[in-house]
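Supplementary Data S3. Sequence and structure tokens for construct A.
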Amino acid sequence: MAQQQGVESLAFEHIYRINGVSVETTRISCVSLKSAMSRRRNNGILFFLVMLFASDWSAAQISYSITEEADKGTVVGNLAKDLNVNVRDLQSRNLNIVSGRSKKYFEANFKTGELYVNERIDREEICLKIIKCALNIEAILSDPVAHKRIEVVINDVNDNAPTFVEKYFSVNISESSPAGERFLLPLAVDADSGSDSVKTYKLSVNEYFSLDVQSGGEHSASAELVLLKALDREKQGVINLKLTALDGGRPPQSGSVQIIINVLDANDNTPSFSRTLYKARVTENAPVGFQIIQLNATDLDEGENAKKVYSFVKRANFNPSDIFFINEETGDISVKSELDYEAQSSYEIHVQVTDKGASPLRSNCKLLIEVVDVNDNTPEIIVTSLMNPVKEDAEIGSVVALVTVTDKDGGKNGATRCKLVGSTPFKLNVNYKSYYSLVVEGPLDREAHASYNLTIIANDDGVPSLSSTTVINVQISDVNDNAPHFLESVINIYVKENSPVGANIFKISAVDPDMNENARITYSLEGDSKNIPVTSFININSDTGDITSLQSFNYEELKTFQFKVQATDSGVPPLSSNVTVNVCILDENDNNPTILAPYSEHWLC
């Protein structure tokens, strides 16, 4: 019952959409937390709640979405609301939006708590050929320290028209080609993605050809020319057509290329492959010259008309012969240049075979080559400093830097682990997957350690595992946590009587292990001697500690006096300490002998 009174309720809230922007997060609110803190029995519950809040901040992530090319200032979402932070606290808690990119695409408005677009966003520049485009940023708050990972999905707009690499495209077709024969047409490219990419093709009206468009699903559509009826070279030797590519935008955009059909005479058998689709696999570290596959085509003709020549088909911006070599006589395909799984994990290649007839005929097939990953990339460690130097009185949990580990390999070869080496008052906290925070774990003391070289090691899960190391230098800045102190608790000074006025009788010195202003010491006098202000006897230089006499001393009148010197540093707030100084006047033979009543004065001197 006591626990129920101490913490009245816990509420969990799931938010899926705010102001038309998608958001996924979890909030935890606690009522009557102040009341619970006043009850000693509820300390365990409070600790649980604090840990629950901290866990929610670091583990969950917020997701927004926005279209590319949005105007600067466009609101992405309400950070204050989604972070469950009062807008008035954003500036005092030093809200910081951090990303691993050179451009700062988003910023936060401290007055409204909204996240807004700060730079022009071009989806094709950021995520070319990537279906889901997302920018990852982190929101960092201090006092207390908290951080949240934010994912902003960039939605495509139809701002690019389809284009053809070729200005025109020629196809040689024998007049003996049967109806139904198919001819591969050039592929249009569109920098947009999804529904805004190339979706269909149109062919200009003609009596000989139709168009067969194959949907590409997630990829762009492609098209083949289909012969409707036999050609007659003597009637029409050249046929000009126009191929138009249209994307899926609303309204759609288009691009065109001229198709030139050259009608050829002679050879009436076309070489054909044993299959229309071939598949092969090759590791990315395969040496140059390694044979991947052999293609085979047959031709029922004889003599020159049956001799075959294999070749790659260049489509759009990709030329297979830059990466692979094909033996034009045997159909063997081998590695020509170094493969890199991280740059491209698969290749779709079109291969054609042509006979050597007077009017050559050709056919084509598709070859899919899968590049198999090997663990050939070491993890990369990226450090973003947030607080350097670190004050020696920094709170436990203060974030010093953000650490991101990336690995270009795929699968287990790209999975990474990161750790901090050695015993230091710092530790690495996992924020999200390969995102870490370097935080203060223990007390700091600049006087003991003015700086730390922190070694971070990242390993991947490949076999064998690869690793990389980076060293972060963290400087510790001074705070005024040491008072000046004297090397002796009591100082005895001996001064001859009749010494001249203004003579330097002693130099007081204190030390302070702090630095700069915190270690700059000033000196002052304190105390009276026999109800007479000590300042009437001596003076002290506040900067150097030099003590000078203000009068000539007479042993017969004043044998000893005592005062205190206070040393004060210039820190904020200042710290000070005292030392007791005993001054003994030494007798000179400057008086005739006299007889006095018995008397004895015993003191320090």
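Construct B, processed identically:
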Amino acid sequence: MTTTEAVPATRSFEADVAKLLHLMVHSVYSDKDVFLRELISNAADACEKLRYEGLSNPNLLGEDGQPRITLTLDPEARQLIVEDNGIGMSEAEMSEALGTIARSGTKAFMEKIAGAKDAEGSQLIGQFGVGFYSAFMVADRVDAVSRRAGADIAAIWSSDGLGTYTIQTADIAEAPPRGTRVLLHLKEDAASYTQGFTIERTIKAQSGHVPVPIFLRDKPDAEPKQIADGAALWTKPKAEITSEEYTDFYRSAAGQFDDPALTLHYRAEGLHEYTVLAFVPETKPFDLFDPDRAGRMKLYVRRVFITDEAQILPRYLRFVRGLVDSSDLPLNVSREMIQESPVLAAIQKGVANRILSELDKLSSSDSERYLKIWGNFGAVLKEGLYEDLARRETLLALARFRTTASGGDWRSLKDYVAGLKENQTAIYYATGPDLDRLASSPQLEGFRARGIEVLLLTDQVDSFWVTGVDYDGKPFKSVTQGLADLSLIPLPEGEQPAPAASDAVDGFIAFVKATLGDAVSDVRASERLTESAVCLVAPEHGMDRQLEKLLAGAGRLDAAAKPVLEINPRHALIAKLSDAGEDNAALREDAAHLLFDEARIADGELPLDPRAFSARLTRLLERGLG
């Protein structure tokens, strides 16, 4: 590749790209074939983008309207060329596309490998598509020359993957008429990628179903032969497609390296006609919790790629990969107007309903497979309980939970309701960041004593969707909110209710309330405590305590409600403090504050005043030691 006499501009990669390139250059990942899939996927995307832009500007296609990808081998020079006749890139676009990382999923990938050792990081390559940069697993240097469709200038980008790249205007005679040509100067141990049978085998194994024909030249002056026909897999009858072909297409189209946990392929007919090919990944994509929560479903119209920004699925189904090919949308529909199309609205509704229906069927027919999907994506699906009122009942039926009675297994709400106790009118839950801490929460003691099952909810979204929701006519109620009303639910056979609190205990509770003052909204005897001395709960009509913490941490709460301190009137410590009498006023005052701080600590918070807490604890220990 020759260039004009312009001096090439040398630029440094962004920090994230430099880290990624270091991993590629020093990769010990065994399946290096993935680089070819990544380059072909990029080339196919470029061809698809040209096909779309050519709808409104046919001049871009010129006399070469057939998209194609061509691979050329040069064993003597140890070079491999991957060329497409797609949309191409300008110099500025090349610098942006090949010098920075834009996908937040890629950033998440980099964050994960930042603390990993080289060997561990290399293994992560097998879980994530790293695009163009994967070429440096097999190449000492990569040159990319590109000419945007309709442009009369071209640019060449070059790098050895060691931290910098050069970019400059290219000799137009050496550039493709349009599109991009990527030249890989292969490493010595990658010479096998100049062998025709190796390339052909690799492409048929992992890129045989890209919707663009692929051609191969065994040497620079050879006649190209077609090795993949570019037939769209989703247009073929299901009976003619093997599971291996579905997996190949999924990996190529979705940029995933795992197997699909669920494959959905169907054609909708009736008022609107469209084909759907969708996959649920087997592992969590790195971009699962993107701030923008964008979906990854592509939209085609009669096999012409339109956009991957149509948001075909609701955001809580963003883990689904695949495409929809419509027969009804106009080919010249703009990306801006497409979201306003009633046809697309009908497609969106139909596809979302079908995917949820397939998940429901799977939960009944193969619970083990379904629970793996739920384990990976349940936290995302539960966003729909908060956002999608129309499908809330469907999503509640799909939901699975850890509970105080599940022994670590998943339980459905149907299972929960089947085990309701006599007079139980609510579905009880506890929210928090840690399952083990939740299971040992003092607020659960009274529920456990009566055999009442409690949902243990550890995802942040749980604090939001439970508000105002009911299932089978039963509202959800937090165990840390309001009165527990446990006296209505009978104890297990043979157990007697605890005696009422003595006058001395009632007096001590009143003393604690007066001592704590405005720090609490109330102090009262507890029905929910059986082992612990104290716990904190929210007022009857107050916000669940975990939700309050989340909103406060996000700056969305002006002032938190004062908690209620519940005291176990049957606890030995409370009985002794109650009997201590007024002669021990200083002790009782310190104890009142320490009990409150103990409840805060059990709730995952700091003492209200750490220095005062330390002083009181010191005085109490000194009294105990005489």
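The chain has three domains: 9-229, 234-370, 503-624. Confidence is low (pLDDT under 50) at residues 1-5.
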